[in-house]
Amino acid sequence: MGSIWGNRLKFSIFGESHGAGIGMVLDGLPSGHLIDWEHLRKYTMRRAPGHTPWSTPRKEKDEAEVLSGVYKGRTTGAPLTILIRNTDTRSADYEAMRMRPRPGHADLTGAARYLGYQDPRGSGHFSGRLTAPMTFAGALCSQILAGRGIYTAAHLLEVAGISDQPFNTVTPDLDQYIKLGEKPFPVIDDEAGQRMMDAVLKAADSKDSVGGVIETMIWGLPAGLGDPMFDGLESRISSLIFGIPAIKGLEFGSGFAGVRSKGSEHNDVPWFDHGKIRFRTNNSGGIQGGISTGMPLVFRAAVKPTSSIGKQQNTINLSTGQNDTLIIEGRHDPCIAPRALPVVEAAAAVFSLDLLLDTASPFI
Amino acid sequence: MGSIWGNRLKFSIFGESHGAGIGMVLDGLPSGHLIDWEHLRKYTMRRAPGHTPWSTPRKEKDEAEVLSGVYKGRTTGAPLTILIRNTDTRSADYEAMRMRPRPGHADLTGAARYLGYQDPRGSGHFSGRLTAPMTFAGALCSQILAGRGIYTAAHLLEVAGISDQPFNTVTPDLDQYIKLGEKPFPVIDDEAGQRMMDAVLKAADSKDSVGGVIETMIWGLPAGLGDPMFDGLESRISSLIFGIPAIKGLEFGSGFAGVRSKGSEHNDVPWFDHGKIRFRTNNSGGIQGGISTGMPLVFRAAVKPTSSIGKQQNTINLSTGQNDTLIIEGRHDPCIAPRALPVVEAAAAVFSLDLLLDTASPFI
Amino acid sequence: MGSIWGNRLKFSIFGESHGAGIGMVLDGLPSGHLIDWEHLRKYTMRRAPGHTPWSTPRKEKDEAEVLSGVYKGRTTGAPLTILIRNTDTRSADYEAMRMRPRPGHADLTGAARYLGYQDPRGSGHFSGRLTAPMTFAGALCSQILAGRGIYTAAHLLEVAGISDQPFNTVTPDLDQYIKLGEKPFPVIDDEAGQRMMDAVLKAADSKDSVGGVIETMIWGLPAGLGDPMFDGLESRISSLIFGIPAIKGLEFGSGFAGVRSKGSEHNDVPWFDHGKIRFRTNNSGGIQGGISTGMPLVFRAAVKPTSSIGKQQNTINLSTGQNDTLIIEGRHDPCIAPRALPVVEAAAAVFSLDLLLDTASPFI
Amino acid sequence: MGSIWGNRLKFSIFGESHGAGIGMVLDGLPSGHLIDWEHLRKYTMRRAPGHTPWSTPRKEKDEAEVLSGVYKGRTTGAPLTILIRNTDTRSADYEAMRMRPRPGHADLTGAARYLGYQDPRGSGHFSGRLTAPMTFAGALCSQILAGRGIYTAAHLLEVAGISDQPFNTVTPDLDQYIKLGEKPFPVIDDEAGQRMMDAVLKAADSKDSVGGVIETMIWGLPAGLGDPMFDGLESRISSLIFGIPAIKGLEFGSGFAGVRSKGSEHNDVPWFDHGKIRFRTNNSGGIQGGISTGMPLVFRAAVKPTSSIGKQQNTINLSTGQNDTLIIEGRHDPCIAPRALPVVEAAAAVFSLDLLLDTASPFI
Questions:
Q1: How many domains does chain B have?
Q2: Distance, in angstroms, between B123 CA and closest chain C CA?
Q3: DSSP code at position B87
Q4: pLDDT confidence band for D50 (50 / 70 / 90)
Q5: What residue numbers bound the domain in which C301 lies?
Q6: Average model confidence (pLDDT) across chain D
Q7: Is residue C362 pLDDT above 50, yes or no?
Q8: Of A90, A194, A218, C285, which has the fewest CB atoms closer than 10 Å, so is most exposed?
Q9: pLDDT, tens digit, 9 for 90 and up, residues A46-61
Q10: Does some domain include residue A144?
């Protein structure tokens, strides 16, 4: 029962990679939002494969049909449902394939969980394709947030060990950051980005893959949102971000590097900036005690190297009960981080709208 | 509304640092467990302050009174409630103090969230003292888990930049690891541990603080527990761990370091070990697709340097509207990681029991 | 955010009466159930209109397309999604209509809740048509329950003031009750049923409508399921049943009539029936302290007279700000109880499977 | 896991009748409410026993200690916890008693659910005494609601078959209704009330018990609160009300009687009353499509005759495996409805505040 998330917005993601389709029911949206379809299309295209040399050439049209929740171009407030039909689903000998589980995939755990009845075609319900509906949700939420002055941005902080310049989290260059979404390979330092792309293509040539780190910023959130303890902002975001396949680490503000600093260096000092409370540093990543500080909220997500690689790999054979080898056919993303990035950014938008809707009501 | 967590176990944590007391309601426990009170006492003492040179000399007796849910020494299945009275709560001029918010604390965010009505004494509901009930819950859950062959262990992987030997996550030395809980400073490499302690005391001498990393292992979980997406094991653990104060990062298996490996190195290869499926490596940290692999579950949590330090710090003065300075009186933990460790391990136990209870029923 | 229900099964219902379609995502189903499509078709047809003189002649094909969660005819355990396209949706001047809200409908409350942005066509998200997905869910759950010896039955206990013979809730005639689902007008006493039908047709002739009471029984539930207080069986069922449009009352066992008895008459006395615990009476409706007794679970739901009637009615005109009159065109069910019956019975099945899945796990 | 309820307010009720105490954690309260302790005391005394000839002479002081969530007399917004110590708990041979389960009680179902480990003393966690914390919660919520012009009232519509005058739900006499809370036996028609009391005392004389119906009204709720389907107002209230012991039926507006009317009579007709939308009748009980209409919200709850009676009853003997008889010692309420009334009214207040807090935020 992992396909539902949210406090005030609830989304239910459904589908399998090679079944009839995938989609989402998004409940709890405010009514009356006039949807910008062109923005939605562009945003969701950022996740779609087949557009760049470093992604799989599989074509996924990802054309979403809206089944409910929209009337005359506006959200009605009732559950909004989208359906994305699966089209590019070539048949294959999946029954033979499922006997040799792919290393790094959920083939074995899925079989253990569902007693062997899971849909094995193209990873079924475990497919990364299931992130398309979340991207749609994030695109829609980001439109509503923009009307309240809240924005998100994300870049590839690291790919194959090569680093981009980190976000400035105290005095961010918002104009620059917001344009990252328009770049096919979203980095601040384009020269580093070129080296990342080279490393990705080189990994592809050797039928291997590399990982990366995505850094995300949300700005415009007022101070005082969230709750202490298990409904703190870190807890809320993390349960969503770790729902995205391939994410194996998450840190806020100074994160793991921050543990090597002293308290006197790490504490974010408040000051009055023309009567407004700001902080000199942002090691907390915009969160103190689970609650927003009013500074940009910043987190980084670790994306493991793609599990599907062209190289021959060792595995087991469930029909023979012997160890065996496996070659995964077809082409796959040699680095999934660039396509995971709009999903993580979308998740940040869904989180932010849920959070806004979760604040105390005007009656109280 | 952040004080409630859980799918099948639900706990509600309540209290303030200097109010009447703190405690917890734990609902959903299996009935009939005969409580080992001596084990409970020892486990919860690991978190209590005042026992070591590197922790605050404040005495917290942390004596928990059981208010409900136990009859003749066994759990009844009804909500189990504990109350820990606050005793060592010296009065202080909190009203003056709240005018100068402490850097690195939730003083400002708490005021924004609760419109200034939060209890300011000793950080109130934001106090680290609130982790005592969670430690109690974890101690109790770990007793029930031990009866099913499930165990947890944790050590200080890093303090002040000094590293302990990491857990062996493929062929762990379980006998050694389980005894870590008996050590006042739980490390595998005691020589490294000594250097860590020295660094902590040195930071204390300079009225400053340092951070650390806690590595935790859970073994004995069968394969096939959990769910894909937002109820995957990473999502479940993270929402709990990030509810512990001072935790700013979390990673599973290879985590952030793993993004620098190749897919061919990173993929965990399954093999038949005398007919039983095992994996050659454990870069996934025991989780694939949100579901347990049957290998040890491993995660690391980043603990920031303690916010309360003796050094003079800059801050603002809310009564004057001017920038100001602040000296925090009293003694505080120069490194909170050693005392956060049993809390993180307790959270791992609570998570594990909740997960076990969450599996499919015998009827289906 | 009312479209999601469940503890262990979660369903998300979506759609509007005259939009693209309606449907449901059902998460948490056990994997491996081989679906009986013919049973599904027959069960869901019981709710469909246009088959009898006492229901609206509108044709709704209610053909459900399965979008996810089924592979090779079996449930996979991943979310199961169905989509029912809307076909018989004649255009009408809905904008004019929405200015004169229909008495007894959610036109005014929907407008208040959604600030006027709700889909007004055919009652939109408030339409009784939204019960079709729940009927599908119930049909599916009832198949799984039958494999565990758990069955449901329902009849029209009262229509237009005419009463059917009540269920025998102590020694029920299960063979007879289970066949009620095959009757187009499910009553025990067919002569009373004929008088009910006559009364319904008479109401239709006078362009008016009548109400009814549905009595439902679940048998085969073992003793000991459920929880005290707010997750007791009455609480669980009621939150589901009151989600069905037109239901305004619900009672268990002796219900409202039972308040006129004495305690000495009302208490259900247990006795040993060949070593098995049974009860002499079943005034509790199979529930004591929120937990199943092992006796048949029995409840009755009050269905108000259909709001849509052909007679001219008074209302307001939102465009003129004056009181006005209204004639609702088209034909509608003169009594909705017969078509609500399979929905209520389906809800009983969904509730029962959720409850079974919610019991303690085999690990504990 | 039935002790937790709520969407925005969450309360966790804990305790057993003869254990250390009972209490509640109430999370999600708005901060800054200045508590009126005298009002709280008076409100909760309405539920306490021992004050009238028709209630048990047991003394329960029900003095609540506030353990958390209040600072300087105001709610802090952190979880508010109360503890009521058990004092009047005479020891008894409970082990012998549990062998002969009391008819109409949860003795057998509790044993089945908790495998025999439940606390049997004074019904343990199933005791009606557990309603004391809910009454406290309701008293507190009603103070906050009064500041927003929202009020509740309740009366005994029926006891032992004798009826009080029903509430006028269209043009209610609010001044009169609000004073019902001050009456020891809250009825509108005091002459009928006298006859009810006589019937209760007569039942007590014959060591038997009688039941009743409680009618509750909430006024001041604006139109447009709630949601369609499973989070509609009926679903929300019912899951709370059915958590109160002895409640076996619930109806809204016209309820069960309404099914005998015609649609043309039953539909509530809106009209403009000096520019404000009102309804001519209130058969919907203030709810259409799960959403508030702005008219008074009205519901009735059926309270079964008290299970504990002095008469000898048949039962089984679990130690002998034979049918047996039982005499319940001590005195018990011959009618529980008068003491259940403030609990139901309190539940209405908790529901109402939760609902208000659940409305759309000012940001959207």
A1: 1
A2: 33
A3: -
A4: low
A5: 4-357
A6: 92
A7: no
A8: A90
A9: 988 766 666 665 555 6
A10: yes
Taking the C-alpha atoms of residue D110 and residue D117, their distance in angstroms, rounded to an integer, is 9
Residue A330: inside a domain: yes
CA distance C52 to C60: 13
Residue A363 lies in a domain: no
Scan for tokens 């933990």, then name that residue: B333
CATH number at residue B328: 3.60.150.10
The reply to whether residue B361 touches residue C364, judged by beta carbons under 8 angstroms, is no
Q: Which of residues 274-293 of D touch C (CB under 8 A)?
A: 275, 277, 280, 283-285, 287-293
pLDDT of D5: 83
Question: Does B78 touch chain D if contact means CB atoms closer than 8 Å?
Answer: yes
CB B14 within 8 A of CB B359: no
Let me know the angle formed at the C-alpha of D25 by D19 and D28, rounded to the nearest 5 degrees: 170
B116 at interface of A, judged by CB pairs closer than 8 A: no
Task: Tell me if B76 and D15 make a contact (CB, 8 A cut-off).
Answer: no
Which band of pLDDT confidence, cut at 50, 70 and 90, is reported for residue C7?
A: confident
Q: How far is A65 from B275, CA to CA, in rounded Å? A: 48
With respect to residue D364, please indicate whether it lies within any of the assigned structural domains. Answer: no
Q: What is the pLDDT confidence band of residue D22, given thresholds at 50, 70 and 90?
A: very high
Mutate to test the interface with D, among A225, A359, A363 (most CBs of D within 10 A): A363
Nearest to D270 among C103, C253, C262 (CB): C103
Residues C142-181 have pLDDT tens digits of 999 999 999 999 999 999 999 999 999 999 999 999 999 9
pLDDT digits (tens, 9 = 90+) for C223-237: 999 999 999 999 999
Judge if ipTM > 0.90: yes
What pLDDT sits at residue A8?
Answer: 87
Put simply, whether D259 touches C (Cβ < 8 Å) is yes
- Judged by a CB distance cut-off of 8 A, whether residue B227 touches chain C is no
Q: Tell me: the pLDDT tens digits for A167-188? A: 999 999 999 999 999 999 999 9
Q: Is the pLDDT of residue A79 over 50?
A: yes
- Concatenate the DSSP letters of all residues of C86-136 into one string: --------HHHHTTSPPTTSSHHHHHHHHTT-S--GGGGGGSGGGHHHHHH
CA D273/CA D277 separation, integer angstroms: 6
- Tokens 């009334």 sit on residue: D341
pLDDT range class, residue C298, cuts 50, 70, 90: very high
Determine the length of chain A.
364
Asked if D323 has any chain A CB less than 8 Å from its own CB, the reply is no
Could you list the beta-strand ranges (E) of D242-350.
247-252, 270-273, 276-279, 287-288, 291-292, 297-303, 313-317, 322-326
> Half-sphere exposure (CA, 13 Å, Cβ side) for B352?
34
> Minimal CA–CA distance to B232: which of A125, C26, C9, A139?
A125
A114 CB neighbours in chain C (<8 A) are: 31-32, 76-78
pLDDT of residue C5: 83
Helix residue ranges, H only, D183-288: 190-205, 233-241, 255-258, 263-266
Using alpha carbons, list the distances in angstroms from residue A327 to A201, A312, A316, A335, D86: 20, 5, 12, 18, 69
Alpha-carbon gap: B289 to the closest alpha carbon of chain C (Å): 13
Chains that touch C (3 or more CB pairs under 8 A): A, B, D
CB < 8 Å to D274, chain C: none
From A340, A100, A126, select the one nearest B288 (Cα to Cα).
Answer: A126
